[in-house]
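Sample pair:
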Amino acid sequence: MAEKFVMEEAVLEGRAWNEAIADLPGAHILQTWEWGQFKAQYGWDALPYVWREADGKLAAASLILRRSIPIGGLAARLRILYVPKGPLCDWSQAELRRRVLNDLAELARQQGAIFIKIDPDVRLGSGLPGQEGAQDDATGRAVVADLEAAHWRFSQEQVQFRNTVLIDLAAEPEDLLANMKQKTRYNVRLAERKGVRVRLGGLDELGLLYQMYAETSLRDGFAIRDEAYYRSVWGNFMQAGMAEALIAEVQGEVVAGLMLFHFAGKAWYLYGMSRQAHREKMPNYLLQWEAMRRARASGCGVYDLWGAPDALDEDDPLWGVYRFKEGLGGSVVRYLGAWDLPARGVYYRIYTQVLPRLLDVMRQRGKARTRRSMVSV
């Protein structure tokens, strides 16, 4: 009997790939052709795969990133596979999701990979656990059960945020403003009264945005990559018409900014940056309000604020950021997170033991590099 869903390497490229995946549930900016081409500059190969029904209709897709691990003479044989924010499919269809998971496991073995990692936007529920109104999702529970039955493991390496804050942009602008917390709405108006102005930034201002991002990382204690990395991702998506830079000024002085990405009717706030100057004028509030309005005007129905705590815990490093995002009128959505399917068990154990220590070293080096770059400016 012929298989109902058949996996094949996609012949689609560029815009054709993006148009094909845009209609799939969970379509994400990190599954676009542009993201694969960007990551190709940093040691990853992009492998596009699709699943089709017997009549040729597209049922699922995965932009799979492949990378070799440089460990002595073993580099050619030690690989990892990662599907950022994918696979894309209707996860409520049990037969389809099991076929996709099985095919990805087989691909990992064929590729000689240590493991394959996925982290699709499959909802486990809404609201933080312990929060009033928090709910679980039946499909999410079923997907977890299938993953565990097929020997996938919840990953120690969560590349993306597990949870996020989403804003429904379907309402009229005045209603979006009314849905904000009172203090947030006050700060938006305060920024306007204090002379904060928001404008679009150009490609020639990416260096300026990076310097603000570096300043933000030092102030808030997170590691970032070098300037060339961000110039590439921001610039490539801006040139593709899938991102725009928003810059906040006070009397002509640049004080804050953000990068607004959009694809398939959804917008993402992936990068934000600010300076210490004029923080009392609340430029970040007006920036987000302008981002919401621009996303809505461009046809986006959802604005993803990218990141929320795992639990209702004020000691969580993301708590302050979460309170800011919640004030904008957003709701917490809990996702599946990243799951690994080990294809070479011994190497996987070595990888998961060594990687956390390696990442700590890389973060410290990144912070030191950022400090040096700021001093040289």
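The chain is about 40% helix and 25% strand.
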